[in-house]
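Checklist before submission:
- one chain only
- standard amino acids only
- sequence pasted in full

Submission:
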Amino acid sequence: MVQHPMPSLTRDQIVAEAFNLLEAEGLEGLSMRRLAARLKVQAPALYWHVNDKAEVLGMMAADIYAAAYSRTGPAQDWREWLRQFGRALHLSLTSHRDGARLCAIGRPPSPTDAIAQAGRIAAPLTALGLNDQQALAHQAAVISFTLGWTTFEANGPMRDFLRQMMDFDATFSTGLDSLVKGLPDK
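Returned file contents:
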Protein backbone atom coordinates (compact mmCIF):
# COMPACT_ATOMS: atom_id res chain seq x y z
CA MET A 1 0.00 0.00 0.00
CA VAL A 2 1.40 3.36 -1.03
CA GLN A 3 1.12 5.99 1.63
CA HIS A 4 0.76 9.56 0.53
CA PRO A 5 2.37 12.15 2.75
CA MET A 6 -0.14 14.20 4.70
CA PRO A 7 -0.11 17.76 3.44
CA SER A 8 1.04 20.09 6.15
CA LEU A 9 -1.55 22.67 7.06
CA THR A 10 -0.92 25.96 8.74
CA ARG A 11 -3.19 28.22 10.73
CA ASP A 12 -3.00 30.78 7.95
CA GLN A 13 -4.08 28.22 5.32
CA ILE A 14 -6.99 27.04 7.44
CA VAL A 15 -8.19 30.58 8.18
CA ALA A 16 -7.73 31.75 4.58
CA GLU A 17 -9.73 28.84 3.24
CA ALA A 18 -12.36 29.30 5.97
CA PHE A 19 -12.79 32.90 4.76
CA ASN A 20 -13.10 31.65 1.16
CA LEU A 21 -15.77 29.19 2.29
CA LEU A 22 -17.53 31.94 4.27
CA GLU A 23 -17.66 34.12 1.15
CA ALA A 24 -19.03 31.25 -0.93
CA GLU A 25 -21.48 29.65 1.49
CA GLY A 26 -22.10 32.11 4.32
CA LEU A 27 -21.83 31.37 8.02
CA GLU A 28 -24.43 28.59 7.83
CA GLY A 29 -22.41 26.80 5.15
CA LEU A 30 -19.12 26.90 7.02
CA SER A 31 -18.54 23.38 8.35
CA MET A 32 -15.42 21.44 9.22
CA ARG A 33 -16.23 18.82 6.58
CA ARG A 34 -16.60 21.46 3.85
CA LEU A 35 -13.47 23.24 5.04
CA ALA A 36 -11.50 19.99 4.94
CA ALA A 37 -12.74 19.25 1.42
CA ARG A 38 -11.63 22.67 0.22
CA LEU A 39 -8.20 22.05 1.78
CA LYS A 40 -8.11 18.60 0.13
CA VAL A 41 -7.77 16.74 3.42
CA GLN A 42 -10.05 14.55 5.49
CA ALA A 43 -11.93 16.32 8.28
CA PRO A 44 -9.95 14.53 11.04
CA ALA A 45 -6.75 16.12 9.67
CA LEU A 46 -8.10 19.54 10.67
CA TYR A 47 -8.34 18.42 14.28
CA TRP A 48 -4.56 18.12 14.45
CA HIS A 49 -4.50 21.90 14.04
CA VAL A 50 -7.71 23.15 15.66
CA ASN A 51 -9.99 21.83 18.37
CA ASP A 52 -13.31 22.53 16.69
CA LYS A 53 -15.31 24.85 14.48
CA ALA A 54 -15.63 27.36 17.32
CA GLU A 55 -11.85 27.74 17.37
CA VAL A 56 -11.80 28.34 13.60
CA LEU A 57 -14.50 31.00 13.99
CA GLY A 58 -12.50 32.58 16.80
CA MET A 59 -9.36 32.70 14.65
CA MET A 60 -11.35 34.29 11.83
CA ALA A 61 -12.85 36.88 14.19
CA ALA A 62 -9.37 37.62 15.55
CA ASP A 63 -8.17 38.30 12.00
CA ILE A 64 -11.09 40.68 11.36
CA TYR A 65 -10.31 42.61 14.55
CA ALA A 66 -6.56 42.58 13.80
CA ALA A 67 -7.24 44.14 10.39
CA ALA A 68 -9.26 46.90 12.06
CA TYR A 69 -6.54 47.63 14.61
CA SER A 70 -3.88 47.71 11.89
CA ARG A 71 -5.94 50.24 9.89
CA THR A 72 -6.26 52.54 12.91
CA GLY A 73 -3.49 55.10 12.76
CA PRO A 74 -1.98 57.44 15.30
CA ALA A 75 -4.38 59.96 16.79
CA GLN A 76 -4.13 63.24 18.67
CA ASP A 77 -6.74 62.20 21.25
CA TRP A 78 -8.76 59.18 22.29
CA ARG A 79 -11.96 60.35 20.60
CA GLU A 80 -10.18 60.60 17.25
CA TRP A 81 -8.68 57.13 17.80
CA LEU A 82 -12.12 55.64 18.58
CA ARG A 83 -13.63 57.21 15.46
CA GLN A 84 -10.80 55.82 13.33
CA PHE A 85 -11.14 52.41 14.97
CA GLY A 86 -14.93 52.34 14.50
CA ARG A 87 -14.59 53.15 10.79
CA ALA A 88 -11.77 50.61 10.39
CA LEU A 89 -13.81 47.94 12.17
CA HIS A 90 -16.83 48.71 9.99
CA LEU A 91 -14.67 48.31 6.89
CA SER A 92 -13.15 45.10 8.20
CA LEU A 93 -16.56 43.63 9.08
CA THR A 94 -18.12 44.54 5.74
CA SER A 95 -15.14 43.09 3.87
CA HIS A 96 -16.44 39.62 4.73
CA ARG A 97 -19.81 38.03 4.18
CA ASP A 98 -21.42 37.61 7.62
CA GLY A 99 -18.40 39.36 9.19
CA ALA A 100 -20.42 41.03 11.96
CA ARG A 101 -22.28 37.83 12.82
CA LEU A 102 -18.99 35.95 12.90
CA CYS A 103 -17.43 38.46 15.29
CA ALA A 104 -20.52 38.48 17.48
CA ILE A 105 -20.25 34.71 18.08
CA GLY A 106 -16.48 34.20 17.82
CA ARG A 107 -14.55 33.36 20.95
CA PRO A 108 -10.87 33.85 21.65
CA PRO A 109 -9.03 31.26 19.53
CA SER A 110 -6.98 29.89 22.40
CA PRO A 111 -6.82 30.27 26.15
CA THR A 112 -5.33 33.65 26.86
CA ASP A 113 -4.51 35.63 29.93
CA ALA A 114 -7.50 37.98 30.12
CA ILE A 115 -5.59 40.63 32.08
CA ALA A 116 -2.75 40.72 29.55
CA GLN A 117 -5.23 40.78 26.65
CA ALA A 118 -7.15 43.64 28.29
CA GLY A 119 -3.91 45.60 28.60
CA ARG A 120 -3.16 45.13 24.89
CA ILE A 121 -6.68 46.18 23.93
CA ALA A 122 -6.61 49.24 26.19
CA ALA A 123 -3.06 50.33 25.27
CA PRO A 124 -3.88 52.68 22.36
CA LEU A 125 -6.35 54.58 24.52
CA THR A 126 -4.33 54.59 27.74
CA ALA A 127 -1.50 56.13 25.71
CA LEU A 128 -3.97 58.93 24.93
CA GLY A 129 -4.94 59.55 28.55
CA LEU A 130 -7.72 57.12 29.50
CA ASN A 131 -7.34 54.61 32.31
CA ASP A 132 -7.67 50.88 31.56
CA GLN A 133 -11.34 50.63 32.55
CA GLN A 134 -12.36 53.68 30.52
CA ALA A 135 -10.37 52.44 27.53
CA LEU A 136 -12.03 49.02 27.63
CA ALA A 137 -15.52 50.43 28.21
CA HIS A 138 -15.21 53.03 25.45
CA GLN A 139 -13.83 50.50 22.99
CA ALA A 140 -16.60 48.05 23.91
CA ALA A 141 -19.20 50.73 23.19
CA VAL A 142 -17.72 51.42 19.75
CA ILE A 143 -17.41 47.69 18.98
CA SER A 144 -21.01 47.04 20.05
CA PHE A 145 -22.35 49.93 17.99
CA THR A 146 -20.32 48.88 14.95
CA LEU A 147 -21.30 45.20 15.22
CA GLY A 148 -24.95 46.15 15.59
CA TRP A 149 -24.89 48.66 12.76
CA THR A 150 -23.09 46.27 10.42
CA THR A 151 -25.54 43.47 11.21
CA PHE A 152 -28.43 45.89 10.59
CA GLU A 153 -26.80 47.04 7.36
CA ALA A 154 -26.28 43.45 6.13
CA ASN A 155 -29.97 42.52 6.42
CA GLY A 156 -30.72 42.08 2.70
CA PRO A 157 -34.41 42.94 2.26
CA MET A 158 -34.44 45.60 4.98
CA ARG A 159 -31.17 47.09 3.69
CA ASP A 160 -32.60 47.40 0.19
CA PHE A 161 -35.70 49.11 1.54
CA LEU A 162 -33.76 51.47 3.83
CA ARG A 163 -31.25 52.41 1.11
CA GLN A 164 -34.12 54.21 -0.54
CA MET A 165 -34.33 56.45 2.55
CA MET A 166 -30.77 56.87 3.81
CA ASP A 167 -27.09 56.74 3.01
CA PHE A 168 -25.78 53.92 5.22
CA ASP A 169 -22.19 55.22 5.34
CA ALA A 170 -23.22 58.75 6.29
CA THR A 171 -25.69 57.46 8.87
CA PHE A 172 -23.07 55.13 10.37
CA SER A 173 -20.62 58.03 10.65
CA THR A 174 -23.25 60.20 12.32
CA GLY A 175 -24.04 57.48 14.85
CA LEU A 176 -20.38 56.73 15.54
CA ASP A 177 -19.52 60.41 15.97
CA SER A 178 -22.49 60.92 18.31
CA LEU A 179 -21.54 57.90 20.39
CA VAL A 180 -17.89 58.92 20.73
CA LYS A 181 -18.77 62.54 21.47
CA GLY A 182 -21.03 61.40 24.31
CA LEU A 183 -18.46 59.18 26.04
CA PRO A 184 -17.23 60.64 29.36
CA ASP A 185 -13.69 62.00 29.70
CA LYS A 186 -13.09 60.56 33.12
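Reviewer check: The chain has a mean pLDDT of 91.
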